[in-house]
Amino acid sequence: MSQPAEPVPDNTSGAPSPGKAALAGLRVLDLTRVRSGPTCVRQLADWGADVIKIEAPVDTAQFGGPRSGPDFQNLHRNKRSLTLDLKTAAGLDAFRKLADSADVIVENFRPDVKNRLGIDYDTLSRTNARLVYASISGFGQDGPLADRPGFDQIAQGMGGLMSITGEPGAGPMRAGIPIADLCAGLFAAQGILIALFERAQSGKGQWVQTSLLQAQVFMLDFQAARFLMDGVVPGQAGNNHPTSIPTGVFRTSDGHMNIAVTGNTIWAKFCEVMDRPDWHDDARYATAPARSEHRDALGKEIEAITLTRATADWITLFTKAGVPAGEINDIGQVFASEQVRHLGLAQPFVSQERGATELVGQPILMSRTPSRIASPPPTAGQHSAEILTEIGLSRDEIAEMKASGAT
User: Fold this and answer.
1) Is the distance from CB of 43 to CB of 104 less than 8 angstroms?
2) Which of the 8 DSSP states describes residue 92?
3) pLDDT in tens, 83-124
4) What is the sign, positive or negative, of the torsion defined by CA atoms of 43, 48, 50, 54?
5) Using an 8 Å Cβ cutoff, are 131 and 189 in contact?
6) How far is residue 88's CA from residue 99's CA, in Å, rounded to a whole number?
7) Which among 46, 16, 207, 30 has a CA at the least distance from the CA of 107?
8) DSSP state, 121?
């Protein structure tokens, strides 16, 4: 892996740039925007990779929300920023010099953009055979729909998720998070790490590709397997689990709760807590297929009982019996949760635009090389002179690029 210069302390917030960590020494050029690409790059930046965010000299951050907004702050921590106009000869030349020493490049342009700019994998790998180049698109790099613009909700619909989300008969429903974007970014990061592991053996990089559509179809998981293996086209099941009943949302005396009853052993424990041993012998509920067939009737009987106690009381009873159950929290309640606080998911940092605040940290705990939020999102071009100096440009050359609008 290439060795970047020693990290330079951030002189605005006082926080250090990413230091020695699991991915220290890995140089990543970040050409991404909006969400899927930045999600991928964040997975590398949080473990200490030297990530250089390549931005246009005119601030385009508003395309993914303002720099001071929660979305941008959450996606672009732990990076340095270099402004380059890749449509100018000087800007493109500087980028290619960076690419020659980079370990990884990540982009989520529409498929034809990188070819027009001359920064595609085939071109750049000629002078850097070890380059791992990751592309995230809406629908794939080729094929009949490759030229369509990609957007998370479009992929949710085309990938089948909206047909199985929401209440039966209520029409298609999107998920409450941009799951196609997020999963495409995570899969791209996984692909990059796989390629880097293979490079350690072969000495060669490769082109890693994924798309919102591929990620969304993969995330159908068991629902896709039901169709591919059994020909079942699943529909909407609302808050009920599609196949495991009773698993869903039930009202209590003071709100709602989730209960998940899977398998006959947990079903027996559940009946005991509910004080309904007769359900064991009821032909409608005695087996999992029967419970699935009579889910509505069973749900009404269960809820008539759950309405007699508060959520906390039920959770205590179910937990003691070994029956999975849990609260249904709003986002504020999530971050007030003792367990969430214990896991350290909300991590403090100092934003250049907002001051002291918090962001969501990585959900992976590692005993020797943990992730960390080491520096806030950079201002546009904050590290341009520093990075251009690292690739050998003189002070005069940098000044000339700035005067011409190339940086």
Assistant:
1) no
2) H
3) 999 999 999 999 999 999 999 999 999 999 999 999 999 999
4) positive
5) no
6) 16
7) 30
8) H
Considering 181, 221, 282, 313, which one is annotated as catalytic? 181
pLDDT at 156 over 50: yes
Burial 312-328 (b: 16+ CB within 10 A, else e): eebbeebeeeebebeee
> How many other C-beta atoms are found inside a 10 Å radius of the C-beta of residue 163?
18
Determine the angle formed by the axes of helices 89-101 and 395-404, rounding to 10 degrees. 130
Strands (E), 67-225: 79-83, 104-107, 132-137, 207-211
Give per-residue pLDDT as tens, 314-341. 999 999 999 999 999 999 999 999 999 9
Structure token digits, residue 134: 């990751």
The single-letter code of the amino acid at 181 is D
Closest CA to 39 of 201, 177, 221: 177
Active site residue 181: yes
pLDDT 10s digits, 217-250: 999 999 999 999 999 999 999 999 988 899 999 9
**Phi (first) and psi of residue 248, to 5 degrees:** 170, -160
